[in-house]
């Protein structure tokens, strides 16, 4: 019992140290520094310090155990990356990414390995005992771009989407190559001789490993999607299925010596659209936050352990070897990228510019995977310590030097940055419009191109796959509608949860401005009065709530959301002031509800002569104590979707009656939403016209 | 330019190549396709385009076909539609889908954006009055969702309204309650699609080599 306690308390201690380190070092103690130096560097330094501390005490500092790394630390990061992989840029550039991942890594491995062997032949270096296969093995370990390091560094620099997906995609997909090369060379170096047949088998092995990994991942992804179809009664464990199936995919493929990373990516990618259509909003949030949390902790631990292992590990320092390795890695990367881009640009429509190439080359960071692979080498392998030292040096060099300088270089070279844009319904409409347009033009043109096949896949997906994997009626829902709904829901939630009101924002437009209507208006004075009252009340309530934001991987851009919610607020106020006579009815609703389907953009028009009594407004409103709920009440008016009053015929009494019905419908819907009923059912739309 | 004459001479193609920027091989291929679509006649009509099987499942089929016959896309300063087009007009419409060349100056890139966005705008602005009104935009969204059944129709309006509101909000900012927003002008359209990267997205591959066209032509 004591043993269990002590080992789990050790784990706990490490985790706490990691979390504390990340929190304090990176954000509090050295805030300015963390702007310049990427977190990964700081964490490695912390690891060095901790390792040094342990050594001073006299204990043996723990080394990053490869099993721990591959089984526990790596999967969350990869799953996080795969699940949130931006599909559109990935599939548009998948050819380029594959070329970089496969051919680029092969080139790196052979270049570095070969030249190092040539170096070792020189007498003065003193390494003549290192044979070709050992050098090639070393080359294959040190040549792969590492996703953890790339993620950590690229997170902050907000490079444009194309370059980001190229480097990142390459770091994910080169795992298959690395696995095959590593195993091959290790086998060969035991056997001692290589024949042509072996090389051929190696190539076959590569295809098996990569495609097999993808297949395993896809199967588990489909299983997960299928399971999520039936979880409508057990919402609480939905996230668990996602994690379990993904981890199973990883373990299964690792068991068969297939590429675990590719399995994880495939699982996440395949699973995501169907799972998200099936699970409830809360489960989705849970999955998102858990993934971010786990991957964050893993990343921290990895870098700290890297630092500790550096202090601990047995080192065999050979100046020439190490320095030549570092130089060769750089040179081979640059040459590889330039050469491959030259070939790729002949086939690409959007060519890669010199700046893009530079960032792709410079962003080829090595990381903990290389270290763990080196550590996995059997201990009686000659020169293992030498290799480890060299690997660590390369990792340090890339992470520290390249990681720190990439941001100023990006700014210096004025590389295109990521365009921060809010999700815009116009862009979404036009994305889809453009897809169909280009498919059509390809049809006219007569050439079966990219869009044609994409269209075919989409149709296949819609007709056959979605039917099986998505619960209820949702599978019929087109993407545009899903996007619209998500956006509305998000805005409604933000409206409820956001914090302080910032100062004056450009107010906006209501439907009224778009529709030409001749409506008798409230007297301006009355409007102003109402608006003022509402605003002050809203303000009181907002101040009671807190806004929260997460920094890791841009979970929640608080400022942006606040602005949008502000805009929303103004819109609401404007529309509220236009309503006559129904306000009291809505405002008395006690609400801790969110609207599932806010028809926010709708404005109801009483085209004529309802007398508005300003008294009804304040009473209802102020009777609600300033609880966080009251803004919901205000928002409810807005969220009540309006009916055909948008048309130019008179609204009149008929309109008012139907609106109260809508109100009831809406409240019921809200109640259902709060009890977490899952994705909003399509058939709840009857009121929408 | 005699598009109604029998095209196919090198000289004519060269002239077209200079004007449109396509290469000679590409023009040759497009010409082959044109001949295939028109059954070796001189002019292309709507029925010819309508019979392409690849367009059958396309929700915005009608608009795409219209775009080919829209005078505004044919670099003419008139509005309205024509009934038939010749090879040159066909080629002119296709130039809107050429990919952006490398090494364009900022101004050239901006012009390219405007041209492509103008094409899109013309597709939406069906009455050629220079603005996309709410009804026209609704029609766009309804067509996009037309394959989605009854669900699509109901929310199409909501989406179109939301989109209009967004445009108005972005471009006009604060509006008094009695102001009226007529519709999306071309300048507004440019503004809302500013981050859309249209010059890199709106293109179709035009091969230089001869594609022995598969059965993607007419079904007859």
Give an overview in words:
The complex is a heterodimer of chains A (about 700) and B (about 220). Chain A contains 27 helices and no strands. Chain A is globular and about 85 Å long. In chain B, the strands form two sheets. Chain B has a two-stranded antiparallel ribbon. A two-stranded antiparallel ribbon of chain B has the order 3-4. In chain B, helix 4 packs across helix 6. Chain B is globular and about 60 Å long. The N terminus and C terminus of chain B are likely disordered. The chains are: A mainly alpha (about 700), B mainly alpha (about 220). At the A-B interface, helix 18, helix 19, helix 20, helix 21 and helix 23 of A face helix 2, helix 4, helix 7 and helix 8 of B.
Element layout with pairings:
The complex is a heterodimer of chains A (689) and B (220).
Chain A: H1 2-29, H2 31-36, H3 39-57, H4 66-83, H5 87-92, H6 94-121, H7 132-142, H8 147-157, H9 161-191, H10 196-229, H11 238-255, H12 260-278, H13 281-312, H14 319-344, H15 354-362, H16 368-376, H17 384-412, H18 425-445, H19 450-469, H20 479-497, H21 511-514, H22 524-544, H23 558-578, H24 583-587, H25 616-623, H26 630-639, H27 652-674
Chain B: H1 10-20, H2 24-38, E1 44-45, H3 46-50, H4 61-68, E2 84-85, H5 87-95, H6 106-124, E3 131-132, H7 134-144, H8 149-172, E4 184-185, H9 186-192, H10 198-201
Helix pairs in contact in B: 4-6, 7-8, 8-9
């Amino acid at each position: 019992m004591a043993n269990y306690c002590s080992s789990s308390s050790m784990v706990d201690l490490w985790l706490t140290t990691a979390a504390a380190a990340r929190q304090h070092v990176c954000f509090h103690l050295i805030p300015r520094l963390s702007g310049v130096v990427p977190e990964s560097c700081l964490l490695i330094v912390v690891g060095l310090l901790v390792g040094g501390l342990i050594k001073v005490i006299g204990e043996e500092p723990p080394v990053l155990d490869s099993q721990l790394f591959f089984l526990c630390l790596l999967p969350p990061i990869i799953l996080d990356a795969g699940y949130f992989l931006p599909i559109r840029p990935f599939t548009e550039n998948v050819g380029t990414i594959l070329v970089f991942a496969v051919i680029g890594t092969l080139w790196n491995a052979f270049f570095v390995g070969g030249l190092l062997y040539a170096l070792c032949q020189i007498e003065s270096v003193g390494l003549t005992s290192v044979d070709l296969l050992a050098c090639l093995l070393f080359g294959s370990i040190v040549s792969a771009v590492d996703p953890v390091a790339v993620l950590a560094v690229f997170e902050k620099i907000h490079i444009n989407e194309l370059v980001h997906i190229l480097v990142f995609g390459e770091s994910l997909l080169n795992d298959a190559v690395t696995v095959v090369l590593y195993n091959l060379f290790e086998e060969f170096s035991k056997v001692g001789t290589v024949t042509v047949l072996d090389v051929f088998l190696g190539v076959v092995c590569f295809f098996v490993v990569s495609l097999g990994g993808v297949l395993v991942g896809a199967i588990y992804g489909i299983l997960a999607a299928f399971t999520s179809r039936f979880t409508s009664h057990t919402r609480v464990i939905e996230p668990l299925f996602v994690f379990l199936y993904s981890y199973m995919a990883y373990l299964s493929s690792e068991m068969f010596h297939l590429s675990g990373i590719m399995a994880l990516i495939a699982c996440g990618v395949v699973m995501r659209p169907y799972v998200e259509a099936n699970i409830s909003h809360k489960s989705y949030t849970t999955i998102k936050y858990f993934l971010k949390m786990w991957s964050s902790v893993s990343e921290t631990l990895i870098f700290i352990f890297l630092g500790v292992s550096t202090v601990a590990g047995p080192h065999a320092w050979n100046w020439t070897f190490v320095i030549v390795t570092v130089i060769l890695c750089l040179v081979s990367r640059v040459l590889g990228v330039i050469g491959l881009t030259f070939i790729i640009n002949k086939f690409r429509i959007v060519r890669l510019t010199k700046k893009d190439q530079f960032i792709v080359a410079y962003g080829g960071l090595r990381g903990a995977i290389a270290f763990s692979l080196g550590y996995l080498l059997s201990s009686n392998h000659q020169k293992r310590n030498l290799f480890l030292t060299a690997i660590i040096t390369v990792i340090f060099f890339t992470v520290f030097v390249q990681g720190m300088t990439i941001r100023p270089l990006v700014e210096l070279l004025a590389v295109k940055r990521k365009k921060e844009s809010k999700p815009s319904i116009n862009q979404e409409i036009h994305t889809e419009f453009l897809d169909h347009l280009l498919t059509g033009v390809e049809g006219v043109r007569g050439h079966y191109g990219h869009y044609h096949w994409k269209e075919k896949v989409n149709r296949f997906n819609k007709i056959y796959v979605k039917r099986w994997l998505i619960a209820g009626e949702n599978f019929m829902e087109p993407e545009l509608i899903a996007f619209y709904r998500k956006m509305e829901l998000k805005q409604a939630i933000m409206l409820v949860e956001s914090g302080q009101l910032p100062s004056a924002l450009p107010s906006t437009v209501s439907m009224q401005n778009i529709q030409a209507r001749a409506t008798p208006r409230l007297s301006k004075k009355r409007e102003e009065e109402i608006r003022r009252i509402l605003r002050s009340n809203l303000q009181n309530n907002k101040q009671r709530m807190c806004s929260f934001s997460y920094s890791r991987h841009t979970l929640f851009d608080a400022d942006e959301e606040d602005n949008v919610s502000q805009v929303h607020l103004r819109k609401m106020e404007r529309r509220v002031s236009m309503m006559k006579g129904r306000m009291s009815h809505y405002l008395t609703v006690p609400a801790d509800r969110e609207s599932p389907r806010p028809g926010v953009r709708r404005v109801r028009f009483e085209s004529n002569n309802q007398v508005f009594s300003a008294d009804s407004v304040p009473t209802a409103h102020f009777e609600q104590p300033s609880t966080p709920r009251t803004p919901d009440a205000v928002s409810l008016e807005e969220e009540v979707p309006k009916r055909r009053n948008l048309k130019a015929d008179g609204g009149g009494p008929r309109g008012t009656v139907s609106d109260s019905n809508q109100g009831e419908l809406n409240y019921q819907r809200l109640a259902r939403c709060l009890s977490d009923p899952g994705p909003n059912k399509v058939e709840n739309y009857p009121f929408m016209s | 330019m005699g598009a109604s004459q029998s095209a196919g001479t090198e000289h004519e193609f060269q002239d077209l190549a200079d004007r449109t920027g396509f290469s000679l091989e590409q023009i040759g291929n497009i010409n082959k396709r044109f001949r295939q679509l028109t059954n070796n006649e001189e002019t292309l009509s709507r029925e010819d385009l309508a019979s392409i099987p690849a367009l059958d499942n396309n929700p915005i089929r009608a608009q795409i076909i219209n775009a080919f016959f829209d005078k505004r896309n044919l670099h003419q300063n008139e509005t309205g539609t024509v009934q038939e087009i010749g090879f040159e007009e066909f080629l002119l419409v296709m130039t809107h889908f050429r990919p952006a060349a490398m090494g364009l100056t900022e101004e050239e890139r901006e012009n390219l954006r405007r041209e492509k966005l103008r094409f899109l705008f013309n597709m939406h602005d069906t009455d050629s009055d220079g603005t996309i009104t709410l009804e026209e935009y609704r029609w766009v969204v309804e067509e996009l969702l037309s394959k989605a059944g009854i669900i699509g129709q109901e929310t199409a309006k909501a989406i179109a309204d939301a989109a209009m509101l967004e445009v108005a909000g972005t471009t006009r900012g604060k509006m008094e309650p009695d102001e009226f927003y007529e519709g999306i002008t071309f300048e507004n359209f440019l503004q809302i699609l500013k981050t859309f990267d249209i010059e890199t997205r709106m293109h179709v591959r035009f091969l230089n080599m001869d594609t022995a066209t598969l059965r993607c032509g007419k079904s007859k």
